[in-house]
Amino acid sequence: MALSTASVYPESPAQAFEYAARLGYDAVEVMVALDDLSQSTEQIAHLVDYHQVPVCAVHAPCLLITQRVWGTDPWEKLRRSARMARDLSADVVVVHPPFRWQRDYAAGFVEGIARLEDETGIAFAVENMYPWRATSKREVQVYVPGWDPSEESYANTTVDLSHAATAQSDPVDMCKRLGDRLRHVHLTDGSGSAKDEHLVPGRGAMPVGPLLEHLANEGFTGHIVAEVNTRKSGSREDRERDLAESLAFARLHFATSPQ
């Protein structure tokens, strides 16, 4: 059960390690973002040593706002993410599928991810995304080869429940289709609106509890990472309560239920 550094924004990754240690999270996922700290293996390693909380995964800088972090070559971004993961003893790099306008990158993406895994020994867990929706009837497909990783041959994948809500897809069905290719879960929630909400689990419309129970029954041994939006929490105390609630929800439902 891990905490994403994105969950404490606008506070820094340093605060994410502090929350994780105090609340009892097992690990941290580092979202490589615009701040210098998240891009520094040396500084993250210092936080690991100080708080005695390991890093389980590195989220590559593949958001729109991080398009220029670590340069503009998307493959070099992934190689740097893998080096950071290796140096921090993490075993997963989370990556989004390419945007449609990244034509050269998208053309060989599936095969390129497989080659990177062979070269680095790191699992590149490709994340489910969603169509961009202006209205309930108007969608734009912006990811290539597609937003649903279960339709491709990736060896390792990530399921994000907020993204599933925005795509209006069933995350339990997606996990079943993926089977043992599911390596990583972003634990969050969503209402099904056009916005990627990243709600605290249990506050949206997604079957978050049933999904965790399904994973427990299947013997899932990957990472379950709280990736929630706490920007509107109001105070550090409220943010801490949201993060504690997310962890409690995960531990409550990730238990083998009677078949």
The general outline is globular
C-alpha Rg (nearest Å): 17 Å
Please provide the count of β strands. 10
The level of helicity is: 25-40%
**What topology, given as strand order, has the largest sheet?**
1-2-3-4-5-8-9-10
- Secondary structure class reads alpha/beta
Strand/helix succession: EHEHEHEHHEEEEHHEHEH
Specify the number of helices.
Answer: 9
Percentage of β-strand residues: 15-25%
The biggest sheet, with number of strands, parallel, antiparallel or mixed sense and barrel status, is: 8 strands, parallel, barrel
Poorly predicted residue ranges: none
Q: How much is the average pLDDT?
A: 95
Report on this model:
It is a single chain. The protein is 37% helix and 17% strand. The protein has 259 residues and is an alpha/beta fold. The strands form 2 sheets. It has an 8-stranded parallel β-barrel with strand order 1-2-3-4-5-8-9-10, surrounded by 6 helices. A two-stranded antiparallel ribbon has the order 6-7. α8 links the parallel β9 (182-187) and β10. The longest helix has 18 residues, at 236-253. It is globular, with a radius of gyration of 17 Å. The two termini are 24 Å apart.
